[in-house]
Amino acid sequence: MADQLIRATAADGGIRVVGAITTRLTEEARQRHELSYVATAAMGRTMTSALLLASSMKRAESRVNIRVRGNGPLGVVMVDAGIDGTVRGYVENPAVELAPNAKGKLDVGGAVGSEGFLYVVRDVGYGYPYSSTVELVSGEIGDDVANYLVVSEQTPSALMVGVFVGAAGVTAAGGLLVQVLPKAARDEALVETLESRMAALAGFTPLLQAGKSLAQIFDDLLGDLGLQLLPETQMLRFHCGCSLDRVLGALKMLGEDELQDMIIKDDGAEATCHFCNEVYRADSRTLEELIEELRADALS
Q1: Would you place residue 91 in the very low, low, confident or very high pLDDT band (cuts 50, 70, 90)?
Q2: CA–CA dist 283, 156 (Å, integer)
Q3: Domains of the chain, CATH where assigned
Q4: Residue 15 pairs with which residues in a beta bridge?
Q5: Is 47 exposed, middle or buried (0-12, 13-18, 19+ CB in 10 A)?
Q6: For residue range 6-51, what is the model confidence (pLDDT) as tens digits?
């Protein structure tokens, strides 16, 4: 099933629900960054969370950054996602692997660490971005992002994200975000119903592995509460906006002396994008052309 995101409402608009399938883009991230099993799970959960958060934004250029810094061996997990359905990210220590946790599942919480902070930046496309910082509650990513929504955005939310990765790679990944909006938040019975239904779910990836579509998952969860599926299905993909031209622009900013040093010592320059692990190379002739441009700029 293609990576996609769909939205819906229920309870006369009092409930907002967003679901995403992110299997292929998580597998691409795994391959690009040569991620371990547990690093793949952490990255996939964070990318899915960022895409779910970005889905509520309005302007075409809006983006969400999530940075997770815990006290576990995985180090920083950094993800950038847009309302356009693109996402990219990296893990500081991608080769870290841990034994399964007590439940026999990938120990994302142990790899990330339960002590630390979750940083969320919402760039709405104009003015200054909105940033929030909350303490980690488990390191499992889903719990931490749901806590951010309650603490920083005062929106009661349930978030379920998951990644199933085996010897053949990622075979299921995605997530579900259910939010009770202000008009329904006072309905305690409704809130309790949602909480019990979400708690009854064994996880999100088992639903995908069972062949359930996002629409079917929504219907099972909210079909008796006036579920209304929004017509648009948004396609999702791993995408990074880096390019050789951007790398050359950054090299040019280093100045003539630094560029000359690269030519003498390394016969060129090499740069790797943190977000997608793409390697860019500039030979000595290219660096000489940058120097010539700097000299021409100085004379103009």
Answers
A1: very high
A2: 54
A3: 4-238 (3.55.30.10), 244-299 (3.90.1280.10)
A4: 10, 180
A5: buried
A6: 999 998 888 999 999 999 999 999 999 999 999 999 999 999 999 9
